[in-house]
Design a protein that fits this description.
Layout (H helix, E strand, L loop, with lengths): L5 H21 L10 H10 L4 E6 L20 E11 L2 E5 L11 E3 H19 L9 E2 L3 E9 L12 H12 L2 E10 L4 E6 H14 L7 H10 L6 E6 L10 E5 L8 H11 L2 H16 L3 H26 L3 E3 L2 E3 L30
Antiparallel strand pairs: 1-2, 2-3, 2-6, 3-4, 5-7, 6-7, 7-8, 8-9, 9-10, 11-12
Helix pairs in contact: 1-7, 5-6
Length: 361
């Protein structure tokens, strides 16, 4: 049985950790192809599974320069966990993590469509004689609490990780959340769009300033939003059926970056790697900062050492190649022959007239 030594124990413990660390660093991160994105999102949501998308946080803040109560000052992106479910009151859209016991970030899609239909009916009956086309409807603020947020400023992230993965790893390490305000926009019956509440308000304020504080109609606001080529603050569009069956819900568009297919594997590696993983990257960062000022001198020193080493090896090789002279002439030291050839080595032969043994008397 091999003897247990501290060095051997350390090697046994370190080898699995180093293997997991190498897997963390160099595991491939394949993304969902662009031509398969829509089908992937539709398939998962229609089957009740979740889809995670990462969007820029800026349009969802009240003001870009300030941080208000409920907002996340350390976050630069929001992480939406999209999921559909059926209930007695209709189809529910969840935007928080499935593990959230409070379930605070959810929207009743059926209820929003019913509000829009009721509002349209009231508008037509009061001002348009009960007839006319559908009037675009903008809901009041829909406040969602505990939406996960993240940043790229995380030690364990490596530059070649997908951006969405980096934001999620930052959230896994720190658990930041933010309160987000959305507005539901119903351009036609059965279609629900979601926009940033503050972005819609900024567009509305601009229209009011142009029209000298006159009433801005929903049609004007809808046209102004559609004219923006970037559609800043736009989040998603759902086509909701009359019957509350989630498999019939059509996801027309969903904004944000999707995580890689191997994100769950890297997330599982966080547990065995433990707190040592960020410590390794922190120490590596400190070491790089210390080496950076003297890096040119280190390069010169390495070059000088390499030249000295090459020169030393060449001198030793030359010394070995020098001829060695024996009694009969030069000896071949390269051949490494150890057998003695009596006929070849003439100078080393014993004279035939010499007798060994007792001396002559």
């Amino acid at each position: 049985m091999p003897r247990l030594t501290p060095c051997r124990i350390l090697r046994v413990l370190a080898l699995p950790w180093l293997t997991l660390f190498a897997l963390w660093c160099f595991l491939p991160s394949p993304l969902i192809p662009a031509d398969q994105r829509a089908a992937y999102i539709q398939s998962r949501l229609a089957s009740g599974r979740s889809v995670v998308s990462v969007v820029d946080y800026t349009p969802y803040k009240r003001e870009a320069r300030y941080t208000y109560s409920g907002e996340c000052s350390e976050c630069s992106s929001l992480i939406f966990n999209w999921r559909l479910s059926s209930s007695p009151v209709g189809i529910i859209l969840h935007l928080d993590d499935e593990s959230d016991a409070w379930n605070t970030a959810r929207i009743n899609l059926t209820g929003v469509l019913a509000e829009a239909a009721e509002w349209n009916s009231h508008q037509k009956s009061s001002s348009r004689g009960g007839k006319g086309e559908w009037i675009p409807y903008f809901s009041a603020a829909i406040k969602l609490r505990s939406i996960p947020g993240g940043s790229l400023d995380e030690e364990i992230n490596l530059p070649w990780f997908p951006v969405a993965d980096q934001y999620r790893f930052h959230n896994n390490m720190h658990g930041f959340t933010a309160e987000v305000a959305l507005r539901a926009f119903i351009p036609e019956p059965g279609t629900v769009e979601f926009w940033s509440f503050y972005e819609v308000n900024r567009v509305l304020e601009g229209l009011q300033a142009q029209s000298k504080n006159q009433t801005v109609s929903p049609e004007m606001l809808s046209d102004a939003l559609s004219k923006d080529p970037q559609r800043t603050g736009y989040l998603a569009t759902f086509k909701v059926p009359n019957v509350p069956v989630i498999k019939d819900v059509v996801v027309q568009e969903l904004r944000g970056d999707l995580p890689s297919r191997t994100y769950p594997i890297r997330k599982a590696l966080l547990f065995p790697l433990g707190p040592i993983l960020p410590l390794v990257f922190i120490l590596a960062g400190v070491a790089s900062d210390m080496i950076a000022p003297v890096f040119p001198f280190l390069v010169v020193a390495v070059v000088i050492f390499a030249l000295w080493r090459v020169t030393t090896v060449m001198k030793r090789s030359t010394a070995r190649e020098r001829d060695v002279w024996g009694p009969t002439g030069p000896v071949d030291v390269k051949s490494g022959e150890k057998e003695f050839d009596e006929e070849k080595e003439i100078g080393l032969q014993r004279p035939q007239t010499v007798r060994l043994g007792k001396s002559w008397k």
